[in-house]
Write a structure and sequence with these properties.
Radius of gyration: 18 Å
Strand content: 15-25%
Number of helices: 10
Number of strands: 10
Number of domains: 1
Largest sheet: 6 strands, mixed
Bound molecules: adenosine-5'-diphosphate, magnesium ion
Strand order of the largest sheet: 6-7-8-3-9-10
CATH architecture: 3-Layer(aba) Sandwich
Shape: globular
CATH class: Alpha Beta
């Protein structure tokens, strides 16, 4: 059997006295898109921060493409695994152009041919080459998030960790960016973990998902169960009903 792209075994994370991720285990297959869903504060971002190497205080096991990961990751890891955050304003430096933002990771990793790579990557995220010399404030929210995605892609990673990548965007723009992410995954055969508080987003983007509550796994299911409205647990059912109610009201 091929190795999972990502494996998490008995992950625990505490901040001081508060134990926010509890004995979490799951595995993501190569090329799969896996959703983490749960209310605010359930520990979703903390899991992604551990996976991406941003959080060093954890116990348990994290494996990437069959390799057990130390707390401090090596350079090869940071090339293979990239994260996209919710707030594209916060993740882009206000005084750096799009070109700077994309050139930086290439320089850090000593990758040549920057001009061609940047042009290609911008075109892959649907931005014209002329955007290279714009600053974040000259871009719309959706365009900024496309730049953040381009920045993650420019190193040609195999795994993207997406933390509520469209939650900060206007509803009218969200679907565009989600569709872009889906298309990119297919084209580049990437593996995704997508964090969202919105079950509809995960239902559209993922093959399987985990419902989290208070740092624990409540239920793991495939999207067919979600589409058939057949979660196994009362909590997941409640979350589903709430998201549908919200949609109707909205
Ligand atoms: P989610 O992404 O599901 O909203 P988070 O992973 O951000 O949840 O947070 C889970 C819990 O951990 C929350 O109670 C949050 O307040 C707490 N938390 C997250 N990061 C920190 C931190 N750096 N220091 C202390 N508490 C934190
Ligand atoms: Mg979060």
């Amino acid at each position: 059997m091929t190795n999972p792209a990502i494996s998490v075994d008995k992950l625990n994370v505490s901040f001081g006295d508060s134990h926010v991720v509890k004995d979490l285990s799951f595995a993501v297959r190569p090329g799969e898109s896996y959703g983490l869903v749960g209310e605010s504060g359930s520990g979703k971002s903390t899991v992604l921060r551990v996976l991406s190497g941003l959080n060093h205080e954890w116990s348990g096991q994290v494996g990437i493409e069959g390799k057990a990961q130390p707390k401090h990751r090596d350079k090869a890891f940071h090339r293979a695994v990239q994260m996209v955050f919710q707030d594209p304003y916060g993740s882009l430096h206000p005084k750096k152009t799009v070109d700077d933002a994309l050139a930086e990771p290439l320089a850090i990793h000593g990758i040549g041919d920057a001009q061609a790579r940047i042009g290609r990557t911008l075109s892959d995220v649907g931005l014209p080459a002329s955007f290279r010399f714009r600053f974040p404030h000259q871009l719309s929210g959706g365009q900024r998030q496309r730049v953040a995605i381009a920045r993650a892609l420019v190193l040609e990673p195999s795994i993207l960790l997406l933390d509520e990548p469209t939650s900060a965007l206007d509803v009218s723009i969200q679907a565009e960016v989600l569709n872009l992410l889906s298309a990119i995954r297919k084209e580049r055969k990437l593996t995704y973990i997508l964090v969202s508080h919105d079950l509809a987003v995960v239902g559209h983007m993922c093959e399987r998902l985990m419902v989290m509550q208070f740092g624990r796994c409540v239920e793991e299911m495939d999207v067919a169960a979600l589409a058939a409205r057949q979660p196994q647990t009362a909590y997941a059912q409640q979350l589903l009903t709430a998201s549908e109610g919200f949609r109707r009201a909205g």
